[in-house]
Every structure is written in C-alpha cells, then in structure tokens.
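Two entries, shown back to back:
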Amino acid sequence: MTALILRPATGAEGPLLADLRVRAMRPSLEAVGRFDPLRARSRFLDGFDPAVTRVILVDGAIAGFLVLRPRADHLYLDHLYLDPELQGAGLGRAAVAQAKAEAKAAGLPLRLMALRDSPANGFYLAQGFRKTGEEPMDILYEWTPGTA
C-alpha cells in the first residue's frame, strides 16, 4: 500500500464525495433494507463542510475521505468512507490512526457511530474503540487517549 496522504477537501468536491459515500455504504444499507441513494447522497451534502473534511489520496487519486468535527468535549469522526475497491488495504486503519493522533494531541476522546450490523462495527472495535451506547439504527463508540 502506498502511504496515506490526507489533504483538505474543497467545496467543489462535495458531490464527488457524496457519490463515494453512496458506493461505500450501499452493501450495509442494502443489508438493513434502507438503501436509498438519493437520501444517502443528500444526507451527506446537507452537512458537508470542507473545513472539517479531508480527502484520502493514494497515488494522487481520491481513495476516500474522513470528516473530523471538533466538539467541546471530544472529536467526532462523522464520516470515514473508502472506495469499495480499496477497502481492506489498511487505508482505514491509517485514517483512524491519524484521527486518534489528533484526539490525543487535543487531550480529547474520539467518538463516532456506525450503522448497526455493518462490518464497520468490527473494524472500529479492532481499532480500540469501545461501545458506549445504541440507537435504533446505530452503535455509538469512543476511543480515549491512553487506550489501545
């Protein structure tokens, strides 16, 4: 795998990133009977903020993106999506490691939620997150600096 490069997103990249999100989420949303590409796309674009969005590049091409939102008492990993063809190559682990490093530098926990029954749940548990709660469609997680 080529080294992970993160760069700030531009406002013009919103639609491209929304499409990537739809491709990445499709299997999980289909599994729970909730795949609606228009809803998935608009849900991302309605809250798109390039100031907190970073594009993941591999060999100069967009491989994915993450959204890390600062909150008063934590950092919130709002989105982490990779092109489905590039999943399993360590990019997600590298992106989470970067987010964890930022949380550690800020002395804050890193929180997120993952769609119930999605493979993402196992991924986040393997990255040292612990389950902190549940909502009807999502599982809540937290990683605290000083833990695995």
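entry 2 starts here
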Amino acid sequence: MNDDFKSKKLVAALFILLATVYGTNAACVFSSPIQVKDLDIGNLITWNTSEEKDNELFIVQKSLDGLRFSAVGQVSGAGNSSKELSYRFLDPALGAPQAFYRLAQLDTKGGYSFTEAVTIRRKQNNNYVISVMSATSTERFFTATITSEVEAFLEYRLLNQNEEIVKSGATYLKTGENTFSLDLKRQLPAKYKLEFLMLKEKETIYLRKVASKTLEKLNLARKSQKD
C-alpha cells in the first residue's frame, strides 16, 4: 500500500466521521444489491449502478461483528451517469471466517449514504446464514435476509448489556431466502446483542438503538424490475 493511497484512505475515513454529523443524502441508484464472492485470493465485492449524480467516491467498509465498520479501500465514482456501470473491489484479508461489507457513497457536494450490509463466509457448510441485513444502528426496526438450507424453527433472543434477555421468540424458516424483522420499540437506546439458534448453530449480531437524528443514512435506491 503506497503513501498516496494511505493518505486518501485517511481522508476518506475522516470524511465519514464528519459526515455522520453534517452529511446529507447522496444520489446514486443501485441496479442490484452489492455482492461478495469468496475467492482464493480474497473477498471480491461487486456492485452495479444504473444512475449516478455528482457521485465522487465509493468507500468499501468492513466489519467483523456487523456493528463497527472501518474503511478497507475506495473506488472512484463516475460522477454523472445514466447508464449501467459495474464496480469491483478485492479485499485480500483472509483471516476471519466471516465478515460484513457495505459501501459508503460520497457525492461532490458533501452528501453521503450507506448501502445495506452483506455477509460473507469462507466456509459455506452451515444450515443457515444471514446474507443481507439493514443498518445495525436503528431507531426501531432491524431486518435481515436469512438464507436457509433446511426447513426448521429459528430461535432468537435479544440481550441487553447486562446479558439479560429482553425479547425472544421463534420463526419458521423455509428453504431459501427468509425475511426476519425485529421491533425495538419497547427497548431503551443502548447496545444489544441479538442471538440466533437453529439446529445447534448459533449466530450473533450486535445492534444499537439510537435516536432518529443520529441514524446513518441508508441508500436503498433500487432500479425497478420490468415484468
């Protein structure tokens, strides 16, 4: 990694920190969600856009727990475009068996937004996996797409910082993609741990309930699919 890239990465990271306080929504339409592929040389992150307006930069962010994200690289945007464009970024870090990725998209006017986070596992031998999830900092709802290899009941429980269970339940997963939604309306603003258990397989995600004014801006713009 050369000094020029390190400098750009530091500037980008500082910009994200400032943008969480002063940012506004950026304009970028994704024609499909970001995807991550497990390769021998690293994790390949790809995404497509169908429209860009004053789009300066994509910053690829990575997390090992789904809550704390940090920049691992950046890709220049097209500026202004109304055609389909493809992007890719290779993360060569292979240490962790699971990682979460998302994009921070910055525009030339100082606006920003985040994509949904996607999960990658280097060993795909599990009965279920959390493949896509909404922002882990939320005012009320947390949603996730759970891909299951079997049909079974998935148990979940929400624990506070004292490891006390404040909410629990179960949902039936069918084979394929399933939508999971958790309502945090009755919970106080704080950090929580969400645990899933199915067929002796346990998954953990850390959530933070926050006030609406501190929420990260989530870019959910999607290109409509024609029949």
